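>> received
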Amino acid sequence: MSRRLSDSERYDETASAAAAVVIGHYSTSFSLATRMFGPRVRPHVRNVYALVRIADEIVDGPGRGACRDTEALRALIDALESETLSAVASGFSTDLIVHAFAQTARESGITEGLIRPFFDSMRTDIDVTAHDSTSHDRYVYGSAEVVGLMCLQVFLNAGYHRARTAPVHLTAGARRLGAAFQDINFLRDSAHDRQVLGRDYVGADDPAQREEVLRRIRRDLNAAARVIPDLPPDCRRAVILAHQLFSALARRLETNPTERASVPTSAKAFIAVRALLGGSASEVAA
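>> returned
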């Protein structure tokens, strides 16, 4: 006979279920990858992704459309940051997505030092339209690398109720995998970013600059691949799947620079089966 949930446990479960709905509706590839995490880790990764997704929808989606000006938009993202930090400190939020993230952060040791840079990058999207190499690196750290570091905290600490410091090589790998994912997204979405949002993250219209970004992506993917075997066993297959899906995207960006790259469903299925059967994260040709 199952144990009756307490009120707080029921609320926690409801919040995590809400986060799962977000990831299921917004990302088929990432949703596929999360299914390969073990049950210790899976809901926490969804909780992290859901908050990241909601923040992105504020600055680039319906939040922007609902705001009368940039100050109103900035107030929305500031309010989400404030609510998130408060929930991590207290363990409760009336916002189910924030509450789910806060439970994960408290259990896994995701601190303000990772949360604030993320929101700083989200604020950058409000009024910065073009990036140089310095602002690009700063933006990518906050928007993607810290998300990789949040997930690494989950991999190492979820379910253990203690915050273990990540080894240096895993920290570096998490950052470089996050950076590769973000740069791939920049290239894939460059036409939309330029035409709809009026932004240029990597100068993708310049063939020489585009090739330099692709070289950086290959280096980052390869560096990340080398440390994946040192992740906890219940995390490896999902990370391998995500790595290989984005590697396939990178290869398509190299051969079809004028199209929005995507991985066909059949190719995704093959990559998923290979990861499920214990395949490794193959390095890409540098």
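>> The mean pLDDT is 91.
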